[in-house]
Predict the structure.
Amino acid sequence: MYQLRPKPLAADVRASFLQKLEAWAQEFGGSWVPVKDDSQVLYFKGDAPQSALLALQQWPEVIAVVSENAPPFTVSEIANKRVVVQEAMFGAGAASIIAGPCSVEDYDSMLSIAQKLSNLGVRALRAGAFKPRTSPYAFQGLEEKGLEILSAVSKENGMAVVTEVLDPRDIEIVSQHAHMLQIGSRNMSNSALLKEVGQAGMPVLLKRGMASTIKEFLYAAEYVAVGGCEDILLCERGLRHFDPEVRNILDLSAVAILKQKTGLPVIVDPSHGTGRADIVPSMMCAAAAAGADGFLVEVHDKPQEAWSDANQAMSVDNFAQTLPRLDAVLSAFEKTFNPLLTK
Amino acid sequence: MYQLRPKPLAADVRASFLQKLEAWAQEFGGSWVPVKDDSQVLYFKGDAPQSALLALQQWPEVIAVVSENAPPFTVSEIANKRVVVQEAMFGAGAASIIAGPCSVEDYDSMLSIAQKLSNLGVRALRAGAFKPRTSPYAFQGLEEKGLEILSAVSKENGMAVVTEVLDPRDIEIVSQHAHMLQIGSRNMSNSALLKEVGQAGMPVLLKRGMASTIKEFLYAAEYVAVGGCEDILLCERGLRHFDPEVRNILDLSAVAILKQKTGLPVIVDPSHGTGRADIVPSMMCAAAAAGADGFLVEVHDKPQEAWSDANQAMSVDNFAQTLPRLDAVLSAFEKTFNPLLTK
Amino acid sequence: MYQLRPKPLAADVRASFLQKLEAWAQEFGGSWVPVKDDSQVLYFKGDAPQSALLALQQWPEVIAVVSENAPPFTVSEIANKRVVVQEAMFGAGAASIIAGPCSVEDYDSMLSIAQKLSNLGVRALRAGAFKPRTSPYAFQGLEEKGLEILSAVSKENGMAVVTEVLDPRDIEIVSQHAHMLQIGSRNMSNSALLKEVGQAGMPVLLKRGMASTIKEFLYAAEYVAVGGCEDILLCERGLRHFDPEVRNILDLSAVAILKQKTGLPVIVDPSHGTGRADIVPSMMCAAAAAGADGFLVEVHDKPQEAWSDANQAMSVDNFAQTLPRLDAVLSAFEKTFNPLLTK
Amino acid sequence: MYQLRPKPLAADVRASFLQKLEAWAQEFGGSWVPVKDDSQVLYFKGDAPQSALLALQQWPEVIAVVSENAPPFTVSEIANKRVVVQEAMFGAGAASIIAGPCSVEDYDSMLSIAQKLSNLGVRALRAGAFKPRTSPYAFQGLEEKGLEILSAVSKENGMAVVTEVLDPRDIEIVSQHAHMLQIGSRNMSNSALLKEVGQAGMPVLLKRGMASTIKEFLYAAEYVAVGGCEDILLCERGLRHFDPEVRNILDLSAVAILKQKTGLPVIVDPSHGTGRADIVPSMMCAAAAAGADGFLVEVHDKPQEAWSDANQAMSVDNFAQTLPRLDAVLSAFEKTFNPLLTK
């Protein structure tokens, strides 16, 4: 809805354009932020007077000069994107499930759950090694040891590893073990982390903040996209709510609206989104019918013994029973469930 | 989850029980609120000392003496209820649509939309004659004239009339024209109206308040049920929200939770629930997958000319296009769409 | 900000104007809603075409033809209003307290608390005789018997009675015993009740709905004002909230904003507004500093034995200890606390 | 309410205790998180069986073994804390104002506003050099250049510099120029940043998240405190809200509640808390009456020309006019406004 992706300039036109631009920027003591490398959408960071900016906008090579209130160009331009993480595929007609326990606990339990999920066709494994916790006294995750367990277990089962990164300084170590970097709800507005993760050269799973508007969510994705990453999964995971009946209120209208505003795939996390394993199956089906391209769910071998978030984790049996109905709903929307296609 | 419905007492036991009870009440200058006519669940309204109430609880005929914090007994006891309004059926495997414009405008436009909806299989017609409006200067509905239009039009098309009642003093006149009385969100906590509507001898469509918890919603239904009405449709219609992207946030987790707590049918109003006709089709399908037993939707011949709520009304064409997919989702959940069965 | 009050027409001009208007309305089969009896602000209810309405707006006697989106004229026009209920005064430099228990329990306890409050200078007594309760099994109030207790007790202590009315059919009986009619939060959007209470010829205490915007609150007041009542106290009483730490979140910014938008006095109910008696004193002082013209507080002789809302009722001692500091804050804002002035 | 601060152990008892503890930890392959250096409140990070942990709790030197659900010990133990930042003092009877523009714009405008504020008695200057913005295209702050301007301007006026840090890697550079590190709302749940800032050896201004509970806020403070910093200012700054009338809803009940749960000083930011400069004076006074120990306000030389947040910045004149009334309210609560005391 915002802007069509501009046609690329011919190489020589582009070179001369960038030269002119550099000179212009130098005159005003500013510089250009890379909105998109190959685009003529420009964001000038500096002190140029308004009149100069308006004049700039008249240059034939320039599509738009981005101002403070510029919309999230990049994510709006992306059309019908499929994000592929090893054998798990999301978007453009494909839907997959990322499943696993809340946190990595130990090798044996991780292996056990991964094998069961893999046998059910799950191609992406989730579990936290670095855990964002409300209390500093709550279990913070096994950190690097957890990453190693995840990595070993996923290799044995041919699954992709999706895990959270909390600190820009951890991106390197997490990237060595994971196939997709997760930004959690608590960090959706952590622009320092978003900028950095967008430059890591890996797909990113971005969760919506616990009280974020859709516009803020898209801008957070734009922070990642501006860094160069377009393999972004947007994840609705429930919003702060007044009714103690649920942990959060799951916003399925967001799925339909996000799909209108961007071609990025949208997935839903009904485990955090409701905090109740008993209604997770209903909410997975509802999300599918709302247009979701995938699911992030907590599944645990022995939910009641989980180290964190015990109430919201499904058992493997309940998870398995949900799949046929979920498949039926996805089929009604011409989606292929968990397709094993080559890129 | 609260209480099993007690087995009825034998007629003679019951008679003697009620006699004893009456004497007991008289002793303390109080009386019994009819929690359920045929039940031994008692609510005493009066000044009996706590010790007497505890002694009463020991009588063999008494299941429970209801206190201030008593759960919504009646609606919790109801199991797998089907509400039938003329040819429209909700619950116990049946799902129907109540459709129509926001408000009755005039005979011709009402007839036109009713015929189109009827041809698409819709068996219940909605439209406001008494309109609850934020501003006293906004159109308040055609009132009795509107009811007459609704009544005439629905007869010609064999449809049930569902319309809102705002004032206990209007129940009589509305009942003469309608087949189901609607209590709107603004009046979910209007206990005077709830008590009265429960005694009207008609099915009731009860909409959730705009910031009500599920518990409050069930208690509102209990007010209706205590009056004697068990033909209640619970309607989720969106909650107050911080994101201007939507008018309200539709709470589909409520559908799954309500279905656990009561056997009453649950329907969803995605028109008010989102305020955006463009995502109503997605939300109808999502509601079906969440377990909804029906839908309340605004459909208008010429949405942009509607006298109220123009942005959220679907066109007849969009509505028609939604039906096949909705049917597919309902089928995946073993529901019969709009069944024409006898009771 | 909306409209200045128009200058009244001379009597003869007015008569001929109304005659012309009547003829005009008859032509289109509609009628006039009395926006204000003496004003030339008109609201036409009927089927006149847009062109006729525009032509009407050109008549020299007409200030405005009110449409669907008309702002709350009447309450916006009111300037620096003082509402006087017996000896309690609110607004235009006066601030008073309405205090008492949540509900009328019995004559003796009511008398005891009233005497203590009266001795502390409180001139208005609150207590519910008709109680709006979430559960039909919760104590619904002593009803008429409660009104009689209230009336007797207040006479003995020279206090005004402020009590809630839930049903348009109860206005008559409540009016016989009370000096001010209260509309509770659950009924702020009950337009049938608002319209009727505005015609009762008594001052009205209007509480904000639990999730109402300021605009909706002002329109609710407008419903009352359109009925002829301009002695309206607006009461902020807390909004639905996600943090279980408090029962509601008290919106003190609403006090400052309401005072900009209307000259009606604004009072604050920190008892319901927080649900915690321990912070009520702080919130009374904060409300005063935000510009409040009065306070509605729950005070109980033995808070822990109250029949309803025990946690939020202050003891008489705590209430008494709050008054000197509250007085100091009011003085800093040139307000006279509880002034015993003649009208 | 949680735990009294334990009496310190004698030095020799402590030494032998720590030795025993170390051995115990080694046995289970874990380690101790420093809940408090000098305390016997222990948090064990490792795999010790529950039985061993229970046995440990019986040691005479041990007060408590902190578990997952441990309350925020450290911040609960702190009593009547005064935070001193150069000449600005907060808590224990002192109240100060931190004022300035939203962001550092240039040297001249910064100097001009600082001089005016300094002349009015403001001892702490705020302005963003690193700005957390929703959009990557919005002005992100002058960064290091901004810090240098802030530093220079504050030296000339004898004011403390309070400025935000967004990234753990920026703490060092920001610390060189600032006297107090601010953690903004968007980063209240950024545990990586909280941990690091608590170890920087500087006072910390911690703002509440936009939809955080009070409990979450206290745990965020605990993250900082566990790092060694007890000079923490808690700042209420408004919560996400459904009413477009304000940018956020200011939660003044939080001030009263926080003051009960911790002895840390609590300040209020009515500029972000309402987004409306016109009601900031009222809300400053209300905050003072609710018990606030200070204020964070946006003041700009020419509000309408501000580079960011123009609507919520007060002019210097309006700010100056607010001070006498604010002083009167603080006096009513035995607080000294902006005291120039020695530590």
Summary: Chain C touches chain D at residues 211, 213-215, 239, 242-246, 249-253, 255-257, 260, 273-274, 276, 278-279, 282-283, 285-291, 325, 328-329, 332-333 (CB under 8 Å). Residues 1-6 of chain C have pLDDT under 50 and may be disordered. Chain C has two domains: 2-67, 74-337. Residues 210 and 239 of chain C are 5 Å apart (CA to CA).
